[in-house]
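Handoff note, outgoing to incoming analyst
You'll be picking up this chain. Sequence as last confirmed:
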Amino acid sequence: MTKEVAGLAPHIRTVADGQEIFPGVRMRITAGHTHGHAEYVMTSGGQRLIAFGDAMHSPIQGDHPEWSAVFDHDPVRSAAHRRRLVAHIIGKSYPCPGRNRIPPTEGSELARCARPQR
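Most recent structure output, in case you need it:
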């Protein structure tokens, strides 16, 4: 172990898939995208937010989760994650960071949330 990493060791803790890391915040492993990719589910005051990072790169992936980006190291697993994500959110109204709520409509509406706002 390098000196720098050894110095950080007392400040690092590992967490398991689904573990609550802070009150109201759970980490979920999202295998298939980049190595170590995770999403965070935050719950507070009866509301829930899912910060799924760049698990989707284009709005079209909401309708076609099997269409992978070059960054997906395992396209089959990343597509499975996108399918679960879309299925979980469709029909609900979730807040989306930096945007309004995700409308309870088809998958492409979910993916529009992931697109940066211009």
